[in-house]
Amino acid sequence: MFRFLFRKSPKPTKRHRFGNSKAAYRASDLPQGLGLIDDIPLEPVVARLHQSLPPDYVERLHYRVKTANPAMTDDEFACKWFELKRFFLMNIILKRTPMFSSEIDDIWHEMLMFTREYQRFGDQFAGGVIHHSPEREPKQMPGERAWFDWVYAHLFTFAPSSARCWNGFFRNPLDTERTDLLRVGNEAEIAERWFDMEQAKRYPEVAETIQILVAQAIHEARHAASSRDFEDTGWRNPVSTPNSMVYLAGAMMFFSITDNNGYNQSMNTIFPESNPDVQRQQESNCSTSGCGSSGSDSNGDQGGSTGDTGSGSSCSSGSSCSSGSSCSSGSSCGSGCSS
Predict the structure, then answer these.
(1) CA atoms within 13 A on the CB side of 137
(2) Which alpha helices (H) appear in 97-174, and where do they start and end?
(3) I want to staple 331 with a disulfide (CB 3.0 to 4.6 A). Which of 57, 167, 267, 327 is the partner?
């Protein structure tokens, strides 16, 4: 179950922990399926996700996005679409899944313009609409972003364009409330607080995945807390995967617990951030897009987030369109939208 190799190893050489922010968008570099880590049993969910997205829907979405963004290449769309599908998979696992990329969020907005198709997609994939709703008061959420990164790293293999799509990874520490609860190790409480247990009841593979993630998080938190320094953890960066997301997530867990206030400095001693000025300029999270997902629910319960459940979508500008859903500024429900 646990993917770290617990044996002493030489101190790792310095590597960039966030990937190249200017990595080219190449669809040929994307993993098969959604690139699940080997022991994550979500292949049936991935298959259901793809079956819920008819080619005609994806083609019309592609056309609409490219029309609104003439400079976007087909490869760029493919990479961002790939990451949005990963986001939807996380949405079925987590109780709350904020959207931390305004560019990926733009594609999600365009999906909503096809009202009937989007409703059908949510029903078939998640048993109910996947709500798109803004925060009432958009704000920085570093702890939420850190948890997003940790879960992402334990579900998916590294894809070259991922860091660019998500504006880097592991730049914020996990909040102390979260790491304290992980160290206590109450699996039922952790699962209920942070994971979508309604989906776990509906799909056994989701329940199994949640169990794996909870056990892994508790294990990492306790091991980090009992280690004198990062080298003492024995967590070894595999030579075959020098940019291992799981390894970096372990480092994030360790420094979040042992040096939360000096997190960035501690991480930079081992994994220096590449092009920090560029990374900061590209930072985009819910403080700018204001949009997140609260999980799907066939009864219209948004799990504590705000937004209108009538058509399954609500966006930050409040402008309306003929289908009855709210749209972001610059979007319209003209030709090509379902009503």
Answers:
(1) 0
(2) 102-112, 115-126, 142-155, 162-165
(3) 327
Amino acid found at 272: P
The pTM (predicted TM-score) of the whole model is 0.78
Give yes or no for a contact between 295 and 97, defined as CB atoms under 8 angstroms apart: yes
The CA distance from 323 to 115, in Å, is 7
Helix orientation angle between 74-93 and 102-112, rounded to the nearest 10 degrees: 80
* CA 197 to chain CA mean position, Å: 18
Residue with tokens 């594609």: 107
- pLDDT tens digits for 14-32? 444 555 446 789 999 999 9
Region of poorest pLDDT, from 73-82, 133-142, 215-224, 287-296? 287-296
Contacts of 333 (CB under 8 A, 6+ apart): 113, 321, 322, 323, 325, 327, 339
Burial class (CB in 10 A: 0-12, 13-18, 19+), 67: exposed
Query: Cα separation of 154 and 220, whole Å?
Result: 12
pLDDT at 235 over 70: yes
